[in-house]
Amino acid sequence: MATFLYKIGRMSFRRRHFVALLWVALLTLAGVGAASAPAAGNSSFSIPGTEAQKAFDLLEQRFPGTSADGATARVVFKAPSGEKMTDPGNKATVQETVKELSDGSEVVRVTDPYQAKAVSKDGTVAYAQVSYKVSGMELEDSSRDALEDSAQDARKAGLTVEIGGDALQTVPHTGTTEIIGIAVAAVVLVITFGSLVAAGLPLLTALVGVGIGVSTITALASALDLGSTTTTLAMMIGLAVGIDYALFIVSRYRAELAEGREREEAAGRAVGTAGSAVVFAGLTVVIALVGLSVVNIPMLTKMGVAAAGTVAIAVLIALTMIPALLGYAGRRVKPAGEKGKLLGRSKKQERPAKPNLGTRWASFVVRRPVAVLLFGVIGLGAAAVPAASLELGLPDDGSQPTSTTQRRAYDLLSEGFGPGFNGPLMVVVDAQHSDDPKAAFTQVGDEIKGLKDVVTVTPPAPNKAGDTATITVIPDSKPSSVATEDLVHSIRDKGAGIKADSDANVLVTGQTAMNIDVSEKLNDALIPYLVLVVGLAFLLLIVVFRSILVPLKAALGFLLSVMAALGAVVAVFQWGWLANLMGVEQTGPVMSMMPIFMVGVVFGLAMDYEVFLVTRMREAYVHGEKAGQAVVTGFRHGARVVTAAAVIMMAVFAGFIGSSESMVKMIGFGLAIAVFFDAFIVRMAIVPAVLALLGRKAWWLPKWLDRALPNVDVEGEGLRTDADRGDQDRELVRA
């Protein structure tokens, strides 16, 4: 592989005009496609195989024309102090508001609170529900404006009016902190390279790669039903790995220049050696992201595949566009050890007498491996303790900031009707094969009324055919509580007995039941996903490192870092530690897909640092150094670059903490803290400590397996032979 990539690097350097033009053309094509594509809505949140999804599909079939997937809004009214919503003046204001809301072109129906009995027992709170033909992301701005204008008119009459539901849903924004993250990355690159030109190359190529990836996702979003979060995730990961991959190749290029090689030869060798590590690191990220499809949640699968595509683009750009741009940069990219005028030095610096920081740290770890190992494991173990209290759920209006009208509407409904009113359960009774459908409907309602934690059970509402009915159940507890989850399971357990008595199927659906099914499906898929992703990556790393213990150590270190990162997420978003600093206005359960998502993404990113750092050690060991000295050599060449890459990745991920979307905020924080734990504690401390303790055994591989594995030559051993032959040929030509 090293020889093949070496040829690609030299070819890209020589034919830089063609390579640059090709990438610019791809960027332009993707941009035109994105600009001309229709706007995308939220990705449909279907969960194949779950009861909630089966019930939803049945409703679409048996209750046609009800726009079950359309947007809804709850306009919540509260009477002034000392008054009631049933007072004539307040009642007239509400009915006028209902009339105004009914005039919208996208409105299907609006319920009158007084006819639908949607007034609280104390008479202080009432609500009107508005149903639309299209989803929240597809609503015209005029419909949202009409909704807000009607609420404002009611406020002028003296009522407190707030709006909940997904009708006000908009595309999330990430805020200025995303720009700050890129700015931090730029500063780190300038410090690392000491040159604006060298620092600009990784940023430029990363932006091109993300531009192509995100534009392609945007162009295909409507056709493939990709949500706005898909684009955000692809941008987040694409920026981080794009900068890192380019950083490693540019750093290796400068090291090759420092050894006296010509620029084209240096570009080829940089791509052949560091590029090999980039390919395998990229493969581990792609495996982890594509592996999310094992969960069988379409939204998660699409997010993973889209982000994996952006990572693949970042790898291709690093292998081709970086050497092409290095050809354009010429002598403005200095050899390693030679700083540009930016830092006040233009001449090559003498090699410092004392070893660099990476060498000194690695030497310390090799001398004290047990102490460093214990310190790292105990520290990460302490950070992981909060993960034992992990509570999972999906965000709803209750997780919105208190400054939003959605959150205030949520609180008003809880105040007037009880916390469970924000998470009603819809029970669907399919009596198509029952001898007496009406009796089956009544039996279901009576059975549910006798269950614990039930406040209200509405009468059955049958369809025109009379073979299917819906029953709304209001729990006593809030949607994300354990009691509500137990109630869903209790209803389903009762349904099994009803099926035996009357041959009627009882299905529970609604947003709350859907969230519960998502959490259970994700929990059930976590172990198979871990086995698949870690197993495939383990095999890949055996090929790269030609070792059994090094990949095993990499996998165990990853588990430590991801558990510590989950503990930090629980501490901030569930317990509220440092919540104000992170902009978390409302604590609550952790997003249910967070554990499996972090396992996938963090594993891929963790293997990046493992590959980049340990391949340098492997390279030194293969060339004759002792095991302990190889660890020090690997740190001498790789620690500075890996540190810079980790800081850059943390800065990019942390930039998304400013997002208005709670899911994006949580993902940004989780990935940033996971990179910190994995890069600076696992890879920089635990890994060298373990390798020092193992010594030569770390690189042991059974002979039969050594013969069976393909030789991918990540260390670039083949390049040395090819280069020697090239030097001899040139000497013969000169002679």
Break the fold down into its secondary structure elements and pairings.
Elements: H1 2-14, H2 16-36, H3 51-62, E1 72-78, H4 88-102, E2 107-110, E3 125-132, H5 141-156, E4 160-165, H6 177-193, H7 196-224, H8 228-258, H9 263-290, H10 298-329, H11 357-367, H12 369-384, E5 392-393, H13 405-417, E6 425-430, H14 437-449, E7 454-457, E8 461-462, E9 468-475, H15 482-502, E10 505-509, H16 511-545, H17 549-574, H18 579-582, E11 590-591, H19 594-622, H20 627-654, H21 662-694, H22 703-708, H23 717-734
Helix pairs in contact: 1-2, 1-9, 1-10, 2-7, 2-10, 4-5, 6-7, 6-20, 7-8, 7-10, 8-9, 8-10, 8-20, 9-10, 9-16, 9-19, 11-20, 11-21, 12-17, 12-21, 14-15, 16-17, 16-19, 17-19, 17-21, 19-20, 19-21, 20-21
Protein model, in words:
With 735 residues, the protein is an alpha+beta fold. Helices cover 64% and strands 7% of the residues. It has helices at residues 2-14, 16-36, 51-62, 88-102, 141-156, 177-193, 196-224, 228-258, 263-290, 298-329, 357-367, 369-384, 405-417, 437-449, 482-502, 511-545, 549-574, 579-582, 594-622, 627-654, 662-694, 703-708, 717-734; strands at residues 72-78, 107-110, 125-132, 160-165, 392-393, 425-430, 454-457, 461-462, 468-475, 505-509, 590-591. Helix 9 runs antiparallel to helix 19 and helix 19 runs parallel beside helix 21 (662-694). The longest helix has 35 residues, at 511-545. It is elongated, with a radius of gyration of 30 Å. The two termini are 33 Å apart. Residues 345-350 and 722-735 have low confidence and may be disordered.
